[in-house]
Predict the structure.
Amino acid sequence: MLEIADLTIRYGPFLAVDHLAISVGAGEIVGVVGPNGAGKSSTVKAIGGLVQPKSGRLVFDGRDLGMVPPHKRVNLGISIVPEGRGLFSRMSVDENLVIAGDPLKDKAKCAHNIERCYEMFPVLKERRWQPVGTLSGGQQQMVAVSMGLMSDPRLLVLDEPSLGLAPIVIGEIGRALGELRKQGLTVALFEQNAKLTCSIADRIYILAAGKVRHHNRAADLLNDPEILDHLV
């Protein structure tokens, strides 16, 4: 579904992503693991069209994303949950979800998707009229993931969804991603948290300094002592 080939991203003299190659097949959960500075967020921004690659191609379902403006990529079925969440803090949970569902142009479908998100994260339904800025960090992340689902994406891209969260909340995020797997949604998960990623991903890429250092099925990586050093 998503093919990234020979992707190179520079910020002036700084090389952030170095000839990166990643693929995500339909129905897969693919994890991309690496420390700060590995190139994860830069790759996510390239998928969303927020940075211009120096070279390389990003192809979604056979279509070259380089020919698609950033604001139209959601119409192709790509939804990105950015690092930092990107929420409207003064608006309620419900209002944030309605805004995220606007690309559907279908009020009934939007209402259905909101209820589906509340089934996934019941605590949000209890706080649906509460300003998002007053929620805990974990609850805000649940809102961010829910917003990513509101447009009925074919590919959900998450950038560091567990960052700064307590273990119990990380478990909730993992549970939700597991539910999405059962629904057949394709997910690209860019994470530092190797434990979370290995628990739900079909395949994992390990990045360092903008390059893929290892790639295999999650179970195989976890059984390789040399690989474990890269996952700490």
About this structure: The two ends are 30 Å apart (CA to CA).
